[in-house]
Structure formats: C-alpha cells, structure tokens
Amino acid sequence: MKLERRLFQPWWLSVAVPVGSLVVAFAVMGVVLALTGRDPWDTYRKIVEAGFTGNGALSATLISATPILFTGLAAAAAFRMQLFNIGAEGQLYLGAVGATWIALQLGERDVTSTPLFVAAMCVAAAVLGALWALIPGVLRAFARTNEIITSLMLNYVAGLLLTYLIFDSSSYWRDTSTLQARSFPQGKPIPEASNWPTFGSSVIVPLGFLIGILAALGLWVLYSRMRFGFEVGVMADSPRAARYAGMRTRRKILSVMALSGAIAGIGGASQIGDFTYTLDGSPTGLQAAAFGYTGIVVAALARYNPFAVCLVAVLIGGLLNAGYTLQGPDFPSGLVGVMQGIILFCALGGELLLRYRLRIGRVRAGKPVAEAA
Amino acid sequence: MAGITKRFPGVVANDGVSFEAAAGEVHALLGENGAGKTTLSNILTGLYRPDEGEIELYGERVRFHSPRDALDAGICMVHQHFRLVEPFSVAENVVLGDHRGEGRRVLLRSSATERRVEELSGQYGIAVNPKAKIWQLSIGEQQRVEILKALYRDARVLIMDEPTAVLTPQEAETLFATLRAMADEGKTVIFISHKLYEVKAIADRVTVLRGGRTVTTVDAASSTPRSLAALMVGRDVDTDRGRTRESVSGEGVVLTVEGVTVPGDRGGDALRDVSLELRSGEILGVAGVAGNGQRELAETISGMRAPSTGTIRVGNDSLRPGDPRSAISAGVGHVPEDRLGTGLAPSLSIARNVALKTYRRAPASRGPFLMLRHMADAARSLISKYDVKAPGPDAPARNLSGGNLQKLVLGREFQGEPRVLLVAQPTRGLDVGAIETVHAYIRGAAENGVAVLLISEDLEEILALADRVIVLYEGRLVGEVDAATATVEQLGFVMAGGAGE
What we know:
Distance between the termini of chain B: 38 Å
Largest sheet of chain B: 6 strands, mixed
Shape of chain B: globular
Shape of chain A: globular
Strand content of chain A: under 5%
Radius of gyration of chain B: 25 Å
Number of domains of chain A: 2
Oligomer: heterodimer
Low-confidence stretches of chain B: 236-242
CATH class of the largest domain in chain A: Mainly Alpha
CATH architecture of the largest domain in chain A: Orthogonal Bundle
C-alpha cells in the first residue's frame, strides 16, 4: 500500500471528502455506542438537538463557538504563512488580562459609554495579544528559533501569569473589597456598562461572535485581495521565490505573528466582555477550556479559509455544547470525549485523502535475482 | 555494464552505455554535467532500474531491485552529499544501515565496531578517530567515514561521485592514496569526475561519456588532459553559430562588478575577487563546470546573496548588497536556473507569478489592494505574447512544462524592461523547439540594448549566443575568450582547470 501525491484534485473531492469523513465518523461512533449498550440513533438525535435544533441550543452553541472562532482565525492567519503559532491559548489569556485592565480603569474614571468600553477592550486585548505573539515572532525572525516550541511554551507562562494575578498576589485585577473575596480569590468584576451587548431574541448572538465574523471578513480581504496576502502566499509557497522578488520576509513574520496574536487577544476580550465579566485565574476555568488548542483544530478543518473557520467553529461549538448536555449519570463524560475525538480524527484523516491517493499492490522483491546467462 | 539505457520523460539519460571495470582497477567516468554519469551510477547502485541493458558482476548477471540489493552484492557509493548522521560517532555511522546482523543482534557492540574501524583505518591509511562525532569532523574526514562504511561492508566495488569537489588539494592527495590502496587489494574503484587532471592522476582507464552515450574507453597513461578534453566536449561542433545579430556593443557600460568575493554555502568563498563589465546590447557568456561559482555570481548581482567585499553598479548607481529589491528597481532582470521554486512560486497562479515583481506598484496594485482583474489581463497578454502553453491565468505554475515555465519567466523579466538580464542555464531540460525559442528571446533582448549575462554549462549554447566568454573556475575568473574564434575544446580545457591560454 502506498500513498501518492495527487497531481490534480477533482472539484467534487473537496465536498465528498468532508462528508465522507463525517459518515465514517458516525459509523465508527455507532459501533462504540452499540458496544457500550446505547442506541446510536437516539444518541445522534440528542446531539443534533442539544447542539443545534433544540430550544436555546443554538444560543448555547454560539457561546461555545465564539472563542474558538477567534483562536481558529488566529491559527489560520499564521498557518497560511507556514508560521505555526501554537500560542493562541496564551495570547487569548493576555488579551483577557488587557481587556479587564482597561475596563476597570475606565470604570474608575466613570466612563459609561458601552461602545467606548468595547472599543477600548478590543484594542487593549489586541495589543497585549500581539505583543505576546511577537516574542516567538522576533525569536523566529532574528534567531531562527522554532516558533512552534516557543509559542507553545509561552502558553504555560501565560497560564501561570493568570493564576498569579488572581491567586498569588494582591494585583490590580484581584477583588479584595469584601472579606469573602479576600479568602476565596476572585477577579474584580468589570463595570456593568462594559458588559458587551447581545443581539437577537430567539437565538441570542453575542457581540463577540459578530466581531469574529467581521474579523474573518477582514482576514479574507487581507489575504485574498491585498498585497499583504500576496506576499504571505509567496513566502508560504516558496521562501526562495519571495527572496527573489525582493520581499522582506522578517518584517512579514513579525506582522503575521502580531496579527495572529491580536485576533486571539480579541478572543480574550470577548471572553471577558461577553461571558465572564471578570478575569478568571483559576486553573480549572479559562485555562482548562483550551480554546487555543481547539482553535488549531478548527483552522485545520477549515483548511485555513476564514469563512470556513466561521462554519467549522459553529459546528465544533455545537459538538462541545452537545457534549455538556449529553453527559450525565448514564452517559460518562469520557464517552463524550471519545466521540468528539472520533469526529476530529476522521475529519483530519480525510484531509489526507484530499491531497494523496492510496495505491494498493506491487510487492517488491527483496533479493537480487541472479539469472543464468 | 552493457548497453544500459535509461529514459526519463522527455530525456534519454543513458543511451546504450557500456563499459567494464576490472578488479584492482581505478576506472574513471569522465563527462560534462548532463552526460549521464550520475544516472549511470544510480543504476549501478540499484536506485534506478535500467530500461534496457544488463549489469554483470564478476561474470554473473545481476538485477537490482533496490539499493539494498546492490549493497548486498558489494557495490557501495560515496555520494557528493554525504549520508551521515551528524550527532552519531564515526563507528556508529559505519555500522548504520549494515543489516547483515539484523534480527540476531539487538545491541550494538560499539567496542567491537570501533576496533574493526581502527583496523580498517590502519590497513588503508585512513586517519579518523572512531569515537569522534561526525559534526566535529572536517568535510575531508567525513568523506573518509563514507569510505570506511564501504570497507566495513566488504564492498567489492566502490563508486566515488566527484569526490574531490569538496576537498583541498592535500586532502585529495590522501584520498588518492587510499583509493590506490583499495585497488591494490583487488577492489574496483569507479571514479566519477569532470576534472581532467585528477582523472589522469588517479585512473588506470577512463570511460568518456557524452550526451548519455559512451564515447570511448582509453588508457589514462596514454592520454593527455587535452585529448581527454576533446573527447569530453566532442569534436563535432556546429561551426555555424547563427550569428545574425548586429553587434551593438561598444556603447556604455551598464553593469560593473568590482572585486566581488562571496562566501559559499559550504564554507570557503564561492566567488573570489571577481570583476567584470557588461555593455548594453552585449551578451557575455559565463562558462564553467557546475559548482564553480556561476550560481553565486547570478545570485549576487541580483541581490539574493550578499558579497563580503566588492561592489556592483548598474549604470552609475551602486546596488545595495544583498537586497534584491534594489537590483530589481535598478533594472536587473534575473532568470534563475531554478525556474520553479525561485523564479516562480509553484502553487500560486500564473497571474500571481506574472505579478511577482510588479505587485508593489500600479497598475498591479493600487495602494495596499491588488488589482486582480489587471493581474489576470497582464497574465493573459503575456501568455499570448510569449506563446506560453497554459490553460489560463488561474492555473498554478507547477502545471506547466519546463519550456513553458521558462517562457513565462523570460516573458515576465522582459516585461520589466530590464537594463541587465541575468540568464542562468536557460535551456537546461528543455526540448529542441523550446531551446530555439528561448535563444531567439535572448538574442532579441540583446538587440534591444539589454546587457545580457548568460550563464550556461552548455558550451555550444554559449558560443552560439555570446559575444565574449569568461570562464569561472573555483570561484575565480580564469580566462576570457572571444566567442567568434573560440572552440569548444579550448573552452572545455580552461573549464576543467587547464590554465587559460
């Protein structure tokens, strides 16, 4: 059996492969469910209901989808240039830190305009996220360090920083106003006016999700319609051709990393402004959600296309959301994890078939054949 | 080896090649680049299978299905780029890939290996410490490790592919002594080279290849570098050089290269103190055997590579060293030898590749935005003007054939209205029809007053197109000849290290 690179990709393949992968995933899941004594059809129905069609399901799904929309876009922005920024996780934390700080600061100055709060939080988050991403960016551009390792390691640093700010210090972010807050560490709540608005009535759409869609649109324009994207495309495809054409590769590495970090950072702002309203330093809170890593999967499934990232984020968000609903006394959370894993595995495995084809046959002879002359 | 033929799509790399090497002999394979030496050795080591012909080893017909078969039969090769694991020790590298003990031994007995390596070093005069790590060794020492690998596997036939290309003259002397000792032990050494002097110095017999065919096999003792050069480049040179072009040289100097020294990729200098002048409307040919600094010369002038000393001027303006953008804006066009990968980005569309150097300015872009419609139109007009066979501006560049890729690059560079055009290996791998078209384009550029620097390993191409020819040897300019009177033999002799006449 041999894998061969496809010279041409028939157009129908890019539709058939994802659909086929899903069919295979559900078939494998059916086996697992049947083996553990559950009715697959019933479970599937529950997943669709809890994730998408049920009462309030879509609203809950959008809550799960918003952060991974941002981290998915952040990963896609960097991966398009073959820059493997694995650090959206940490960049999102830093964004949350920055957004909380500016919201608290403005609150102390009696600002009450929500649009001003939203704008300031996004800017502060983007700046901090970008600066955090620039650390591996600078190292990559000037010292040729592997950005996968450095950005990954900085995630742990960012996580520890988060814990430190709330648990291990009397930092600006920590709430020390009441006795209860002093003994059970928690973050200061941001002012009411800085809570982000939502839209819609039957389906509640968080502002962060809309900002994410706008970011996707912007990213698409930047990468498909602008000089910036042109250069990124050449550098990703052939660094030598980029050098030949006189493109400044270092500068581009820095700007792409900053862009990626800024998007992840805004994801952190949305987390604060849309949902938690306070900086969550607990190792079992924001840090356990692993939005940054899920974002990498989202970007990979979307093949780095910003619009596809929106779609995939909602699908994965629904799956995560359905997972929360499904698990209970008769449905262990481990099984939910297995199902999510099977879907991701099949989807990513299917990607391979898009670019390669399988050839079966032709066994090689192992020994030299000496022939009689 | 008898009647070996190997065809690749569009090329016959070996066309009925035959030669025989005796035990205890150093047998040289001599030929220019593209003569088929490497293909032949790849067949001998089982990497390729011949389409026709057969290999006999010690009187027995063999057929190799994989490199491992060839290894088992005792044929080892030392490649130009070594196959060594840098963090491993010499002894570890020597046993690596030796699968004779496979399945029986799990642990490596390093002390036993080291002892055996020491024994072999003593026997053949190969000085190398078996405990040293590969990364600590010089290139010459690494090559000795490769030879030790072959000896450790009891190779009967050792193939050396241009072994002296990376060695200092002293190291080469040591290598020759080792090879001689191996031949005296009854082993066969096949020595691939295009350097005449060393072939004469080391080989017993020489088989000359040209254009994928065997020319002849001669005794090294009874031949001279000059006679070998003649065999290598061929006597049947087309004397009609198609010089229909009006010589317009004599106008102003457009390109000045002064005292340029450029560090190479493998340490040492790739170019040493090179100076040249190029006039408008002139075609200056740069001849030389591959790896003597030609690629670096083009890359330095185009700004892709920074010289350590020296200046490059276009007209009166000095180019910023190592900055391709400054060369592009000064009007230096560059057709690199690596068309797909340097000249073009393979998976990007033709339209984007056509805009590769103009996307920063109107009309290909306006402000930060790309004018996609204009880019597509520009690509379409280039496709039709330069007769590129392409499905359309949206097709990825990698789908084009070699000739069409070259037309695309040439067309793009012409459209930039260059004052200087660097053209490297413009017709390598192209078919006859495409070669003619490309030659016509290059002549046309010169007629329009462009100063052309033509770098090529194809001497006939250089003589057919160029007004003057300079020769690069080990990074230096070693000679300049007038293309109108020079012969291929003369050039080949200078190229192969014979002093300029």
